[in-house]
Amino acid sequence: MERRSIVKGIDYSPVSVEKSQKVNEAAIAEGRCAVLQGSVADMIFAGDWFDAVTAFETVYFWPDLPQCFREVYRVLKPGGTLLICNESNGDTDKDEKWTAIIGGMTIYKDTELKAYLEQAGFHGVQIHKKKSWLCITAWK
């Protein structure tokens, strides 16, 4: 990453935001990082702002997934990349166990995520699976 790059993160959970701010304290103090509480469904960022957006183990909890993907598309620059990584890919017996234990969790199959991404305007969607892991890249 270039020295002039800035990393911005959002999370619904005030506890997660506070923890992330502590872990990234030096980068925040240097102006290289910001961690905010917010919703991916309605981000405060300007359109065409980010080169890349990542979502690690989070899309399970995004409300109205199609709207969230449209919002990610909005904030990405043309040619920008979205990377999604999930430990559960919707194809294992453990998925039901996790959704029963964790309220509000929805585990999506790769085909569902690809369809939602394409409906939001993303192209070149690539699906990578390894064991129960699922990683998806998509471009604006």
TrEMBL record:
Keywords: Transferase. GO terms for molecular function: sterol 24-C-methyltransferase activity. It comes from the Bacteria. Residues 5-84 form the Methyltransferase type domain. CDD domains: AdoMet_MTases. It holds the Pfam family Methyltransf_11. Gene3D superfamilies: Vaccinia Virus protein VP39. GO terms for biological process: sterol biosynthetic process. This is Methyltransferase type 11 domain-containing protein. It comes from Vescimonas coprocola.
